Amino acid sequence: MKIPYTANPPPTTTDEEASILQKVQDRRGASGLLPLDLALLHSFPVADGWNAFLGAIRTRTSLPVDIREIAICRVATLNEAWFEWKHHAPILAESGFSDAMMEMVKSATTPTDAELTALFDRKQAAVFRYTEAMTKTVKVPDAIFAEMKELFSEKEIVEITATAAAYNCVSRFLVALDVGEMNR
């Protein structure tokens, strides 16, 4: 990492910091604090907001696991955030993704529509395309958005968009600071 991680656990100087640390530890559970947490906890207010926001994205949306993790893993690949990939690819694989599907998500190249639809169902392919557009150009072409509207409710579109946007933020933080020492 480009700056040292905090101690594990980091020292707290106020009740508010102790409360924030406890919330982060509670969210992580038995796995304990991750290198990402030990980077974020340099700033307790940032760690608190991050924990609440990403906790909601990961555990409180209505999205099926495969849809959520396609967005997260495709963002990780496109931004070369290998720490993110390492933590989310197993979740995507456990959702029923074959080796060929995982390879496509991890590929640095954009598959053709034929390649994508040969492996993914319509919803998965739409989320793949939508996430790729959001990550590469930010602006989503009308045709891609029209497909999203055909396949997903407004609530689901908001949740998919928030997931891709949130993990673009996560990946940029991870790569910029080389969290997990996977981006050298």
Automatic annotation (TrEMBL):
InterPro entries: AhpD-like. SUPFAM superfamilies: AhpD-like. PANTHER family: 4-CARBOXYMUCONOLACTONE DECARBOXYLASE FAMILY PROTEIN (AFU_ORTHOLOGUE AFUA_1G03690), 4-CARBOXYMUCONOLACTONE DECARBOXYLASE FAMILY PROTEIN (AFU_ORTHOLOGUE AFUA_6G11590). This is Uncharacterized protein. It comes from Uncinocarpus reesii (strain UAMH 1704).
